[in-house]
Amino acid sequence: MRHAVLNDAGVVEMLFFDAPPPNAIKVPEFVEPGYRREGDQFLPPPPNIPVARRRAMDRINNLTAMLRSGTPGVPYGEKHSEALEVARMVDRSEDPNAMSPSEMLIAFPRLSASVGIEADTLADAAKLILKRYTETAIRDNAIEVIRLTAKSAIKSASSLADIEAASQKAISALEAMAGDGGSAH
């Protein structure tokens, strides 16, 4: 048999399974801390909308952070900058592939590492990096749209059910992206 100690407002503060203190009363098995006694009934705690909102957004933020953890960091950003410069050279009718290997290494240290491994030429490596960077930007944009839409829906929700529905919709969309290899399609 369970016993509980109630505060002055009739809310269960502690549960005891054996050796209850003298001020403890017998309570049904379903009663947990936070339940409130009204007459001979014990009612669950009232819904806490702010806590539910915070928990829902924490779940969404954690999932978006996990999806973004695959986003290239600073070195990739520098490689992207080098790829943009190669693209500008091509736009100016300059041939980046005419550079010697040592000139490439000095001018484009990160991008030149891709030549012969990921691409045959410096220009091809630049195209590859620019394509990957664009795909990453599209994916990150889609993640952020889902996150901000959920944040707005959760913030305006007036019930726990609405919060859960908004949260679940966002989580399903984010999980679909993760299952799709993170693509934004």
Question: Can you describe this structure?
Answer:
This protein is mostly helical and 185 residues long. The protein has 2 domains: 2-43, no CATH class; 49-179, no CATH class. Helices cover 54% and strands 10% of the residues. The chain contains 5 helices and 5 strands, in the order βββββααααα. The chain has helices at 49-68, 74-91, 101-107, 122-156, 160-179; strands spanning 2-6, 12-16, 25-27, 36-38, 41-43. The strands form 2 sheets. A 3-stranded antiparallel β-sheet has the order 2-1-3, with no helix packed on it. Strands 4-5 form a two-stranded antiparallel ribbon. Strand 4 and strand 5 form a beta hairpin. Helix 1 (49-68) runs antiparallel to helix 4 (122-156) and helix 4 (122-156) packs antiparallel against helix 5. The chain is rod-shaped. The chain starts with a strand and ends in a 6-residue tail after the last helix. The mean pLDDT is 87.
What is the gist of this entry?
The protein is mainly α and 185 residues long.
Topology:
Elements: E1 2-6, E2 12-16, E3 25-27, E4 36-38, E5 41-43, H1 49-68, H2 74-91, H3 101-107, H4 122-156, H5 160-179
Antiparallel strand pairs: 1-2, 1-3, 4-5
Helix pairs in contact: 1-4, 1-5, 2-4, 4-5
Taken as a percent bin, the fraction of beta residues is 5-15%
Question: Quick one: overall form?
Answer: rod-shaped
What is the H/E order? EEEEEHHHHH
Parts with pLDDT < 50 across at least 5 consecutive residues: none
